[in-house]
Amino acid sequence: MRPISLTRYLIEQQREHGHLNADLRLLIEVVARACKAISIAIGKGAIGGVLGSAGSENVQGEVQKKLDVLSNEILLEANEWGGHLAALASEEMDHPHAIPNRYPKGEYLLLFDPLDGSSNIDVNISVGTIFSVLRCPDGVAEPREEDFLQPGARQVAAGYAVYGPNTVLVLTTGHGVASFTLDREVGSFLLSERQMKIPAATREFAINMSNMRHWEPPMRRYIDELLAGKTGPRGKDFNMRWVASMVADVHRILTRGGIFIYPRDAREPDKPGKLRLMYEANPMSFIVEQAGGAATNGHQRLLELQPKALHERVAVFLGSREEVEVATRYHREAAGA
Ligand code: AHG
Ligand code: MN
Ligand code: MN
After folding, report:
1. What is the pLDDT of residues 238-248, one digit of tens each?
2. Which of 36, 58, 136, 221 could form a disulfide with 86 if both were Cys (CB 3.0 to 4.6 A apart)?
3. Structural domain boundaries in the chain
4. Residues whose beta carbons lie less than 5 angstroms from ion ligand 2
C-alpha cells in the first residue's frame, strides 16, 4: 500500500468530518514543517553546535538551552507569515507574540512548548515539541494574554513531535489520534497509525520518585500501593519508567499504556505542580482523552480547568483510565470530596 502523507490525511479528514478548514490545515502543516527543521537541528548534535546553554533564563527562571531558543525561533518564523494565526504564545516567551502588521492575521491562537525535556538535550535522550491550537475569541483583533486563557476542552487541535530514534508526530483534531513518522529522505511525515488507543489497564507508572518526601499523603498512598506489588492491596506487580521528557513518557503511554504523574509537592507550595497547563498539560490531555485515556489534576478533569495565567502550573495525572481513576479517587477522598 502506498504511504499516506500528512497532507493527504488532513484532506481526507476534512472530507470525512468537515472540521478542518484550509487555515487549520495550513497551521498543522506549518507546525509539522517547523518540527522537521527542529528534528534536523537536534540530529546534528555536537557537530551542529546546538548543544549546551544559551546563557539566558526564561520567564519561569529556568536556564535556557541553545535548542530551547532555536526551536522557539524556528516555530515563530514558520508561523508568522502564513495568515492563519491571530497570535502565538510559548514557554520561552514571557508574553504572547503578536503577528507583525506586515502579515495578514487569521482566526487561530497557537501555543507551544518548543523543546520539551531540555535536561535531556545534551545527553542524547529523546526530547520533543508540544503544541495546542485555540480559536481567537470573536471580535478580538489584537489578542492579549486573557484571550489565550480558555479551558483545554476548547482546543481545536493539539499534537507533539517526539525526536527519538525516529521522529514521530502525534496529532488530534478531535476525531481520534493519529501518528506520523518522518521519512527523512523524502522529508515527509507519513501515516504510521490511524487510531492510537491507550489500554484502560496498565502495570506501568512514570513519576520522579526522588520527590517522594515532598508529596501529599494521597500521592504517597497511591505509589506505596503500586510498590507493594502482588501481595499488596493492588494485587499485581508494577514496573516504573521515567525519561524526564514528558513527550517521551506520554508517547510510551500512547503506545503501550501506563500512568504519567507529575504531582503537586511541598517544594514550592505556591506552585501547584511543575508542568504548565496551557502548553504541556492541556494538549497532552486532549491527545490522551482522544486515545481513550483520562487526564486529571488529581481532583478535576484537566480539560475543564479555567486557566488563570499563560504560564500557570498544574499537577498532572494522565494515561490509562483505570489508574488515573484510582489516583484521582485517593486525592478526592483525602480532600473529603
Ligand atoms: P521543559 O524541558 O519543557 O521545561 O519540560 C521538562 C518537564 C517535562 O518534560 C518532564 O516530564 C519534567 O520536566 C521532568 O522533571 P524532573 O526533572 O523534575 O523529573
Ligand atoms: Mn516541557
Ligand atoms: Mn520546554
Report:
1. 999 999 999 99
2. 136
3. 6-193, 204-334
4. 113, 116
